[in-house]
User: Fold these one by one.
Assistant:
Number 1:
Amino acid sequence: MAVWYDNAVFYHMYPLGMTGAPFENKEEGIVHRFEELKKWLPHVRALGCDAIYIGPLFESTTHGYDTRDYKTVDRRLGDNEDLKEFVRQAHELGMRIVVDGVFNHTGREFFAFRDIQQNRENSRYCGWYKGINFGWNNPYNDGFGYEAWRNCFELVNLNLQNREVKDYLFDVIRFWIHEFDIDGIRLDCADCLDFDFMKEMRWMTGNEKKDFWLMGEVIHGDYARWANAEVLHSVTNYELHKGLFSGHNDHNYFEIAHTIRRQFDENGGIYRGRVLYSFVDNHDVDRIASKLNDKRHLKPVYTLLYTLPGNPSVYYGSEWGVEGTKANGGDPALRPQIVLAEMEKHAPYPELPSYLAFLGRCRREHPVIGEGRYRELLLTTRQFAYARIGDQESVLVLANNDENEAYLSVPLPTGASQIINLETGEMVSQENGRVNRTLPAGGCELLLLKP
């Protein structure tokens, strides 16, 4: 049975950055920045997005991933009622809400860690964290050691094999579902999480909400270990992310095609039947507009993102070609404040949002783009054509990463009585079972094949 996340387009919000909240949480009272976030909802829906991944949202010390309190919305953003209203309005517009679940670690101001600081060996929470050792010390000079995520000692690793910890976090998730009516969780550092913990979470959330979605941040490894019927529904496809920009910069469509062939080819792709989470940028990696050597490639990059297998995700601001690199300001440079009304007036690439809206509309009106079988049809270093094939209709995708126009002669994957250019509406002719098209530099086309 089809569920909402099988063919969804996501919009990714990093709320602390996009609202211009202070980096350190020293607010005396609550500042209702959700008022700004709500203004984005009609824009996101107009882009053709079906779901919003937003986070981190809960009370933290700095960037949001050093949690203080899992049940209280960060005062820099607002209060619990603000989040409830945000979710309600998104649902009213037909969009689902997925939040960050930061369960690998907590911040040092979390109540269990503070109790250890206070009561040392006598704390009942010593077993909640990994590697607590009162014979050691740490960079904060607490007089004991502990395991930290990647040696970032502001992030203290939780012991997810501890029954109390699991029960506490599952209680948090139930609270989120019942209090805020969220539709899914993106698991931060899923490649560090205990598998039994994730399996139990999958069972529990499915009982709480039948179509609840779990997606994990996984950078390296065999994605099938996480994305399967027992653990998570999906994971981040970092392998494809890398190919989407370097395949254009290097004029090497072979890199992208090889990745997809390995992952999703209808005859042997190792992740066939799984829907991974696709992206070209996010809050941890440089913006796509900064990564591309030729900005004309924004169009084919997004075309491939939306039409290759996977759930596409657009990171806030990148629909206008906003730039940002870690080399020019670290993580905050990837997470800037954006005032929606100002950006709409002064966008770097003002034509890009309407093209993304077109791609979103195509996926909604022709679900075969997200669900159909993938078949490669033509491949050179600079030209690429493939089809998403269904029982009733198919869609043919053509892309050109050359600096010059290119002629493509592409075999049709199925018989077609009609071929329609989805962007222009024009009828396209065929000749001996092939379509012959000339694409401009950085050009692409989506052709609907009707039987």
Number 2:
Amino acid sequence: MLALAVLVTTALPATAATVGPSIDVSVMPGNEAENAVAVNPTNPLNVVAMSTLPDVPSGLFEGVSFDGGQTWTRSVIGTGGDLGEICCDEQLTFDPYGNLWMTYLLNTNGDILIALSTDGGLTLDKVAEIVPTKPTGSKAPSNAHPKRLRGSTKGVLGDQPSISAGPDGVWVSWTSFPSTVVEASGAAVSGLGLHGSFSAPEAVPTANGKGDFGDTVVGPDGQVMVTYQDQTNGQGGSRIYTAVDPDGLGGTGFGNPRFLARSRVGGFDYIAAQPDRSVDAEANLAFDRSGGLHDGRIYAIWTQEVKNESDDTDIMFQSSDDNGATWTPAVRLNDDATKNSQFNPAIAVDQATGFVGVGWYDARNDLGNGGPGDTDGVRNDDAQFWATFSTDGGATFASNFQVSQGASNAADTESGFDYGDYTHAAFQSNTFYPAWSDNSNSTGDNPDGTLHQLDLYTAKISVP
């Protein structure tokens, strides 16, 4: 039985952090959902944020800031040209040299695409296109996994790629459908714009031969960890595993899968706050590469449901000091006393300090009584964005605090995409930037008005 106790909050009160105002990054018509964000370690004022555009045939929204999010250069990328016709599933990471790496999927095939920017995100160029492994005799129909690819893809489909950069390389992992095998590929990086070729797809051993909805992270010694859940459909629950390549770009390869957690959240688990898109356990990883007291510690977060189909979902936290051979017991990060939903968590480590930040969508204030967290008189179907942080390696966390200024409702988006499959966060030099999709129009500049289409939001959270 997994522990469900709330972490004791003794390190810092939530008021120790300064939560800046909500910022509408996109300010454009239509829905922006399923978000990515990254901060440049060589220039912490350089913030890049992206969102999938579910209402258009192809393309991503991109916002680039060089003043810590006060002003943004906004554009739509990936409607053709060098990047191709982008579908979705974008993720971002900066490496220590200031290279911005992006992975994403196309409408036109099932390959895994990787792009690079050396100017802080202003321009991106495709540097790799990885063809997922095709098992003998397999063929995926165009609707093999409609939760991910929206195009008329034939053959093998790559799904939900994730990307991470470390001191000497960048790695991406993904799931190949219809076989649901997990694969990974890495490339050496030695400076700004200086990188090798991505390796051939490397198998990541999985329990029962399948896995999806994963995440990738690179450690301080170049080791690579991949996590995934074994159930890719249904609402009955899942098991979460990790696999480690201890020498990354060396010749060892990934070891056998290691059990991390048992979740009651399946692959397509429908909750009132995400009624069309559904949620998965959405396990996320973060390595401490700060060189500090907890250097080499790996953090994991994932979503638990207290009882199957109760919609009472929580954000769970664990850590490991031995590359995932053993983990601390799972503890609950959300400190509410309700039976409402928390979902789509994101975690980031500040490599300058070793601090840990976590954010998530949270329905705790939607009691259906017309209060500030309720938009429609229905309980548990509206969400805000909340967060917490730790300054002592995850031993204690600050009291949860609300980040978004308003409450949003996914059903009002009229897209069926809801908030998307995931969101992300970035943490650099004492500043935490979560990213979330929001139709509360709390900032008054959403072109679609209040409680219609979603815009991409962030906020600058300073942790002393």
Number 3:
Amino acid sequence: MKEKTEGQKIQEMLSYKKKNVYEEADAARIKTIYDYAEEYKRFLDVAKTEREATEAAIAMAERAGYRAYRIGDPLKVGDKRYLCNRGRSVILFRIGEASLSEQGIRILASHIDSPRLDLKQVPLYEEAGMGFLKTHYYGGIKKYQWTAIPLALHGVMVKANGESVKVSIGEDEADPIFYINDLLPHLGAKQAAEPLGSAISGETLNVLIGGLPYADKEVENKIKLSVLSLLSEQYGVTEEDFLSAELSLVPAMKARDVGLDRALIAAYGHDDRVCSYPALTALFASEDTKQTVMVVLADKEEIGSVGVSGMRSEIFMDIVNEISLAKGENPARVRFASKCLSADVTAAFDPNFADVYEKRNSAMVSCGTCMSKYTGARGKSGTSDATAELVAFVRGIFKRDGVIWQTAELGRVDAGGGGTVAQYIANLNIDTVDIGVPVISMHAPYEIVSKADVYTTHEAFVSFLK
């Protein structure tokens, strides 16, 4: 091999360059990455809603020795506990030996809700020989992407007596699926002339649910009655039970490998379960008994982190206070000493839409987990903008452990933007920075990530929790 020149050595020492994880990996490491991806894909397929993700996380936690916790329960060093918040979010923590006023809590905070179509409270009707369900979209979606694809119905219907009935239709190969009609191109000239954002309206996202009339000529709305009869037979519910239901339509598609080399994964809900899953696996892999650590899997991020199960809920502060007081320490000092990785995705550079990215400061697929010092929009609106000291700290631990990572912004300065839970945690005087997996086609019914980026995110989180 030709010896490097002095200039090449200086350039290598002084310059910054992203590394492709696959180029740096040998065959054994690639196998580790691919094996981890198989487990992640299985998680995705059973966790398509925030309730299902909460259930899956709790099952993983209990296998790892974590026990249920309620506010007010006694706590001691070594405890591994989790708090399930109304079935929609979960906070897991392990209490370490070190002083919280000095070391704080190491927090990984992600979200488990994803864009979807929720049913309205009075959703069922029939027209023109078909039965439909009215929906209200949840989160930022491109509405046209949700037409003419297979959909599954997930959620719960809670009866007036408090009985909760789980619903899941469309995932099993033997199940029927659901569908939103689109206009045929032969009659779609006017629709095609509309901007993408208005060609499909929210009120036309009506889900096709049936077409067989009830066998009684004397009744009206025969198709609607047929649907209600089937729901009653299978789930024991009536139309009134829709009033207290949480039912959502999600893509009826499994997580699948992409490409001949299987280096990528397509799935619904990468945002943000692709960060939630590594947060869990990192927590369970952590063996440091000195550090107090916490994983927050929050709901409602896609609509502003509001509500009792969102990141802005007081439940997060309640647990921080409980842990602090259990160790006889001041909660305000504990928050000041704590550090948090807001584990959320970022936009991966897509050469097909290069004009909305600034390439030097964009996340590249397969170049590792991505740190975003700030997110927000335009003049950094809606971001906490992490301190240089925290970024340097994270850089240091990643260098110590050989984690391949990159840094990026969310597109060009004035192209748009987005936010995460980071600002809400930072508002509590907890040092916070965003880090997570770059995603192609974010918020589409089927998103793309690199297996290499998923695994390096796990490695990054393990490093942070030490």
Number 4:
Amino acid sequence: MRAGFGLEMGEGGGLENINSGDTAWVLASAALVMLMTPALGFFYGGLVRRKNVLATLMHSFFILALISVQWVLWGYTLAFGPDQGGFIGGLDWFGLNGVGAEPNADYAGTIPHQAFMAYQMMFAVITPALITGAFAERKRFKAFVIFTLAWATFVYAPVAHWVWAVGGWLRDFGALDFAGGTVVHITSGVSALVAASMLGKRVGFGKESMDPHNLTYTVLGAGLLWFGWFGFNAGSALAANGLAANAFVVTNTAAAMGALSWMTISWMRHGQPSVLGAAAGAVSGLVAITPAAGYVDAMAAILIGLGAGVFCFFAVDLLKQKVGIDDALDVFAVHGVGGIWGALATGLFAQKSINPGGDDGLFYGNPAQLWEQAIAVGAAGLYAGAISFVILKVIDIVIGLRVPESEEVLGLDSSQHGELAYQL
């Protein structure tokens, strides 16, 4: 059976097998991934209008608190607990019962089980935070809180179990997802598209300017996301080893190529090199390399980053100009499209010589891997979209999803939080 992440299953397992270097690297990586959520707040906060920047920052900051508690209580055991039919984990580890200093050989045999849990917690935190960009500037805070908690429980935990947990059906099927292209980006991207469609367009969308109020925040956020992504991808080796080094190199390479390709296309189309284009392109490259980081080499990373910049750039135009969906901060175009491309590209470029726990892709003699990746993309996307629709529909019936028009025009900073970002 294929190993999840960087280690072969069954390796290690006792206190005497704890490796201090591996433990230090995974804990440091957990801290890097934690930083990504407030970094996302800055990235998104700069893109909204000034009357909504605090509300946007609050989305990411609040999720860091909410999901940290949810993960300890029941999120982790549902995602990684003993398998129940290939679809969900049992409640054996509720409240971290039995999750302590001794390694769990099924997942990471050289680090404490709690270190693995904490690392995975940061993934669970940032994933619903990504969705918030789709409904920025118009969603009730109460509806946001309920949606986030329900989504983390009924979407993130099951899909994480399918793809990464021992016994998960997509893992056993053979799908590869090194660091979360399917689990994180496809689920959040598709859910964001559903949310944007259900909430409807912002007041004045297409009629008045909704330009970013502070691109310096966005570039700062993009830089911090790039920095944190080394923990996201290289940390997924779960050891301080050559696989982590490979993931580090290809992560940086794809991000750089994504920035270059998006900015170049924007420059050719609009006549000027866009700062926002470079920042968004870097994020698209990071998204796309995520599932592939532990399976591909640097040349493949260049192609993956190139594709991400091109596909995501045109997806932004297609959604807003042609389809007319107000995905406020282009979550589906970047994370959904980038995640789909990255997952499929893993099926093209993966090499077993880089990671014996993986498999070869189409270009290395194994066309079946591309099919396995496509099944994982479809299953995760359809499930996330369907469950998100149900959650949002129930919330809308019970309390309403959207703030009244008068509050939206005033701005969510004032109407939802009673505070202003700028006292000028």
